[in-house]
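In this supplementary section we document a worked example of the pipeline. Step one takes a protein sequence of length 289 as its only input; no multiple sequence alignment statistics are reported here. Step two produces a three-dimensional model, which step three serialises into structure tokens for compact storage. The input and output of this example are shown verbatim.
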Amino acid sequence: MKIAVVSGKGGVGKSMLASSLCFYLVKNKRIVAVDGDVDAPNLHLWLGQDERWDKKRKISVFEKPVFDLGKCTGCGKCAQICAFGAIIMENGRPNLNKFICEGCGACEEVCPVGAIKMRPVVGAEVRIKNDVFGFPLVSAQLLPGQTGSGKVVDEALIVADQFSYQTMVIDAPAGTGCPIIAVLKETDFAILVTEPTPSGFADLKRVLGVVDHFGLSFGVVVNKWDLNPTYADKVIDFAGKNFLGKITYDQKIFSALSALKPIMTTDLPAKKEMEEIFNSLSQRKVFGP
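The serialised model returned by step three reads:
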């Protein structure tokens, strides 16, 4: 069973809920946790962990062109075909802006003398903690200036699948782009987290479109509901039977995070609210019998 905690926008409490879900499930299930937010992974912080990892591995999910200027005739076809403007001819020679190159390989295809070859680029890192409160954590991070988040998510999920587990908890990336698609295509159930704001509600609807595309069952959680109770009720009415619960805004949550203290190890009101959400999930048999 693979459960993804999803949000249309960042900062709505997705990682907080995912980390708490791990604490709830590990009592009765073999689980593996995955931080799929490879552009800004922070699930380990919500789990009270520092930056020390048991295993790290650099990976390549992307290619960029390498030019053999000894062969280049300066015809400029590579610059003409580049849809991203990443290649500019300077003094009769191609100059690549690696930060806007998308690695499509069109330049290699059109070069008449074979002066361009696509080569793998080390663009990310997969990290593993073998024992976090009784379960492994797989986290991946895109390196600065690199692209290919969706493929990095794929790699993290492949690594996580190598562990023996009954339930995989995925802290999904925010938004509706390639990274969240990489998560949802592997997911059995999605927990959508939102906040009672116009932007939060609008982005909830957008990511729900992706969830519906994959035909997934889902539930909705409203975080910080008490900051705007009227708007929270609007979101809850929209969720209908898929509403799972709500979480109160509490500045002490951030104090706990900065002290690397997981919410489920505190006596904060949010702990009780998380338990109610998990009980709602259990009643729906999301975690199996």
